[in-house]
Specification:
68% helix; 131 residues; mainly alpha; 2 domains
């Protein structure tokens, strides 16, 4: 269910990037630049960051990272809320993240890292299943 939703979301995002970006998505020079920036993101620029601008990079990101990173965020929280990370971690997360435990009406989300929409996509399912 979670993976299917993330796959469907990535497909919709890819279609929109292709529609808006047109030939920029497949332009060899722009794709090469996008691949270089993705490599930098994975290796040397994590502390500095990279520019996410441009349809070629958006397309590459959504096709290669969106589903995996969204699933990672969901899996981390699932481990905590199911008790797999231990009872102390579960108690802390329930106290801080659930409406009942924290007394807050909404969950505040901090970006863990990754591109646009990634953390939020994982948190959609954390919210549906655990909060």
């Amino acid at each position: 269910e979670v993976v299917e939703w993330l796959e469907d979301g990535a497909a919709v995002l890819l279609q929109e990037v292709e529609r808006l970006g047109g030939r920029q998505v497949t332009d060899p020079k722009r794709r090469a630049d996008a691949q270089d920036r993705m490599k930098a993101l994975a290796h040397k620029q994590d502390t500095v960051g990279i520019s996410f601008a441009g349809p070629a990079l958006h397309h590459l990101y959504y096709s290669s990272k969106f589903e995996r990173r969204g699933l990672l965020v969901y899996t981390l929280f699932r481990c905590v809320f199911t008790g797999a990370a231990g009872p102390t971690a579960k108690a802390v997360f329930e106290r801080e993240l659930t409406a009942q435990g924290s007394g807050q009406a909404s969950l505040r989300l901090m970006s863990i890292g990754g591109g646009p929409g990634t953390d939020a996509s994982g948190m959609v399912w954390v919210n549906r299943h655990f909060l």
